[in-house]
Design a protein that fits this description.
Helix content: 55-70%
Shape: elongated
Number of strands: 0
Distance between the termini: 40 Å
Radius of gyration: 15 Å
Number of helices: 4
Length: 75
């Protein structure tokens, strides 16, 4: 609404300029943040998942492994 375009048009423009969908970008950003937290803090995997917007731990494991090729515990 602020930009004066529809959500679907925003998604088209986002993919055109960023190169990935909004969902893929957000997923990638959340996994990058999770990787950083796992490497630099003593937070548990469950705490990292919650802080990065993954309320379901099993979903976090699946997304994390799909994006990095490794389980969260490897970090």
């Amino acid at each position: 609404a602020v930009m004066g375009i529809s959500p679907s048009h925003f998604h088209v423009l986002f993919r055109q300029y960023v190169g990935v969908t909004v969902v893929a970008y957000l997923r990638q950003t959340r996994v990058q943040r999770a990787t950083e937290l796992l490497r630099t803090t003593t937070l548990s995997i469950k705490e990292v998942a919650a802080r990065c917007g993954f309320p379901c731990l099993s979903h976090f494991y699946a997304v994390f492994r799909a994006c990095t090729g490794r389980p969260p515990g490897a970090f």
